[in-house]
Amino acid sequence: MSKDSVQIGLLGLGTVGTGVLKVLTQNSSDIEQKVGKKIEVKKILVRDINKPRRVEVDPSLLTTEVQDILEDEDIDIVVEVMGGIEPAKDYVLEALHRGKNVVTANKDLLAEYGKELFEASAEHSSDLFFEASVAGGIPIIRPLKECLAGNRIEEVMGIINGTTNYILTKMTTEGSDFEEVLKQAQELGYAEADPTADVKGYDAARKIAILASIAFGTRVTFRDVYVEGITEISREDIEYARELGYVIKLLGIAREKDGVVEVRVHPALIPVCHPLAAVNDVFNAVFVRGDAVGEAMFYGRGAGELPTASAVVGDIIEVARDLNLGVTGRIACTCFTQKRIKPIGEVETKFYLRLKVKDQPGVLAGIASVFGNMDVSLASVIQKRREEDWAEIVLITHQVQEKNLRDALTIIRNLSTVDSVGNVIRVEGSED
Asked: Can you give the pTM of this predicted structure?
């Protein structure tokens, strides 16, 4: 490559796009030294050229026509920060088919159409980098692909959604209800007006699908991930967890054993001594276990204008270096095999259960008998509160197969001595 600069086409100038422009501008001299050439933004795709911007930008750079970027042979890197599936998918695919290199922050796109995108990238020996798609400014994609490439990764577990972590942190420290904290998070801009993707766990599910695909060398899509959100977590659950030495976090969990992969997102009790237990507010963290490295954790801001832009610009610099050396496409798709995804019913873990039962002799024995018949072993049973003729009890199981627990709960819910099953939450991060 003999040009004096690396030319960029930026798709989108929202929060992340604005951050990318800021970082490229304010750190331009340092970036030029690291790359060996200037990195210049040649065109920016926007919906409305006349819209007021939060960053100073030359109006001549703005366009509403994507072909001004895709058909420009001088543009080396297309940076997609629009978000969503369409039209981003079509734009990225066309860019790759035209032989351009792509940097994207789009987790939705990677989690659902990664195979198609990487095939296009490989066909044209183009770079496709996506560090910002998971955990914002925290480096995790490249460490898994490169720094830890010599490992057989056994587990990836993380807090990878800042909104839900903020909500659970506030519920824990202030004793607030879910709806109350959600409203506060929306007022502060941590949660969207429609928070479904966050609080239902869908955002985290897309991210753990990406991480699992890289970690275990197999294609994992959003549809392969078992998902539960945090909407059923109550103040009582958080208080009981605290008394038992746990905190509740929304976790993305991916593990491989004997060539079989499990991938899930759900609330979990984790011991207060676990590294992830101290990750609070909008911060993210990803805990990795490999056969050579042992345990490692990556921690930082998982979202926001500049943290996410940091990851995007890091990818831009990496592509620019590859362009200088003529080695684009050297780090291709790492999904070399197709491994079985374990159904949730086959997953084994410990459980916390909260039940409201009749306060009379023999009730606990009857419940324990049902569990025993389904091979569910109880580690502890604690009576917490009494209300007239009813009592609330908290149970912690040993490691059990989820199908067995579900079968037992189906029977228990129909017992005349049981009023309700208040909540069922998995317990992670500890061994029997």
From this structure: 0.94
